[in-house]
Design brief:
about 500 residues; mainly alpha; 2 domains; globular
Length: about 500
């Protein structure tokens, strides 16, 4: 050991971790800022970009407990406007860069959390293999829904910028917390008044107060642990006092999570949906039929099948720790599945078709596959030789000749929408420079009931004024023009 008990091997490992993190971040930053850019397009993007809320749940509002997305989306947008915009003088590009940074950092943190989990629980696996396994883990997120040659969604996909903050980032946070608990069950420890535990408290708070579809990732795992500990307590003939003492933190978290449901049940969104909901049983049937219709890659299903075979092999060999970890993941998967089906049945059965709704289930399915492969690499050393080949093979299945993955607003032409949005923003900025108080802008007719994604009540000016792009508010009246298929989106606006 060297001075301060820091082994040279750990220093090298930390340097490789930093390099790994940088490579992951750069890849996703390019992916989200250049390949599939993130710019605010629709009504939700432009409404919530400046819709600040207090850092607490609120009773009776539209989204009572969506503290995480509704606090950080406008905060990050403001940083983009006041820090990045002065450097490039392009508001939409500044927003794109800022949100790409946030999403990329979130995925990087997620990947590093998985890496540390594998390293802690499978310590005999070579360091190089842990990095390759982490890449395999990330690649599964792109493979799982890759069923067509083009326009595929992926696990990190959301339909607009706002949904990245509402679903993708909370998903990643909750999953990262699960990785930390899989590495070490720090919830069984007494919380100390230190900076470390204060950060953990904030992260737990944000995870619970994100959205119901995301929070089940963490809550489901904690509930699974409570069930397993209870069974162990009964078998060991220990009293309930011991069970409560060792699991008090977990019980409090689950109780807070249930309280969130109470807030949401009495929110305005819930009240509005109650009036239009069919009978619960019929809704459950519709949701389950939607589950069957989810398109999953056959290649990924093959990996699942292989993992099941290997997992049974390891269980037969009586690897108790491995068996327990697999059981935790499988039971949590079932908890998440039942919860998501019931929640979607109550909210909207079609939610389960999107990756924002089914992410928890597929996350645990991917985790099961990766844990099984980690077991394989640990138990059969020669199997490590095949991992680089598997990664290269997997990439060939993921990346197709055409544009493999979808842009945001995948139902429409993203190039058209982005140019229309840029033209509208530029027209408002030009009007403000001419001291105009109001203008009329024509937008395409999308031939749906509310003209989504460019609704007539979409307010660009509020965000531009809030972020200091224009010095005075310009009232904008949007009117429908030609059909989107006939729209000349290269012009400043249709006349």
């Amino acid at each position: 050991m060297t001075k301060n008990n820091i082994h040279p091997r750990n220093i090298v490992k930390s340097r490789y971790d930093i390099l790994f993190a940088i490579l992951i971040f750069v890849f996703f930053f390019v992916f989200y800022s250049i390949i599939h850019p993130l710019i605010p397009i629709d009504l939700d993007d432009w409404s919530y970009i400046v819709k600040n809320r207090i850092f607490l749940p609120m009773w009776g509002v539209w989204n009572p407990t969506k503290v995480f997305p509704e606090y950080f989306y406008p905060l990050m947008s403001s940083i983009g406007a006041f820090v990045i915009y002065p450097l490039n003088n392009d508001y939409l590009h500044a927003q794109c860069i800022m949100h790409s940074i946030v999403i990329s950092l979130s995925i990087t943190f997620y990947a590093l959390s998985f890496l540390l989990f594998i390293r802690n629980r499978f310590s005999s696996i070579p360091t190089s293999t842990t990095y390759l396994l982490s890449l395999l883990f990330l690649m599964f997120h792109f493979l799982i829904f890759r069923t067509e040659e083009t326009n595929n969604i992926y696990m990190f996909y959301a339909n607009n910028v706002n949904c990245h903050y509402n679903y993708i980032i909370p998903n990643l946070l909750c999953a990262s917390l699960v990785f930390s608990l899989l590495s070490k069950d720090w919830l069984k420890q007494q919380f100390q008044p230190t900076f470390k535990y204060s950060i953990l408290f904030v992260l737990l708070y944000l995870a619970i107060c994100s959205n119901l579809y995301s929070s089940i990732i963490l809550a489901g795992y904690i509930i699974c642990n409570l069930l397993i500990d209870y069974i162990s307590c009964v078998r060991a003939d220990k009293n309930y006092g011991h069970y409560l003492k060792t699991n008090i933190n977990k019980i409090i978290i689950v109780a807070c999570w249930m309280l969130v449901h109470l807030f949401e049940a009495f929110g305005l969104r819930a009240k509005e949906s109650y009036n239009s909901q069919p009978p619960l049983l019929a809704s459950i049937q519709t949701t389950l039929s939607n589950v069957i219709n989810i398109q999953i890659s056959k290649v990924f299903l093959l990996f699942v099948f292989i993992s099941v075979i290997f997992s049974l092999f390891f269980i037969v060999r009586r690897r108790y720790e491995i068996k327990l970890m697999s059981h935790q993941v499988i039971v949590t998967f079932l908890i998440c599945f039942v919860y998501i089906v019931l929640l979607s049945s109550k909210v909207l059965p079609e939610y389960i078709l999107g990756n924002h709704g089914n992410f928890p289930c597929f996350f645990y399915l991917i985790l099961f596959v990766c844990i099984t492969f980690a077991m394989l690499f640990q138990e059969i050393k020669m199997s490590n030789l095949f991992l680089p080949f598997v990664l290269l093979l997997l990439y060939s299945f993921i990346n197709r000749t055409s544009n493999t993955f979808s842009d945001i607003e995948r139902q429409y032409d993203y190039t058209a929408l982005s140019k229309i949005t840029r033209n509208n923003v530029n027209e408002i900025i030009a009007a403000e420079k001419q001291d105009k108080k109001s203008i009329v802008i024509k937008i395409p007719n999308f031939n749906n009931s509310d003209n989504w994604p460019l609704k007539l009540d979409l307010d660009y000016s509020n965000a531009l004024y809030k972020h200091g792009i224009i010095k005075s508010y310009v009232k904008v009246k949007l009117i429908k023009g030609k059909n989107i298929l006939e729209w000349n989106y290269n012009s400043t606006s249709e006349k």
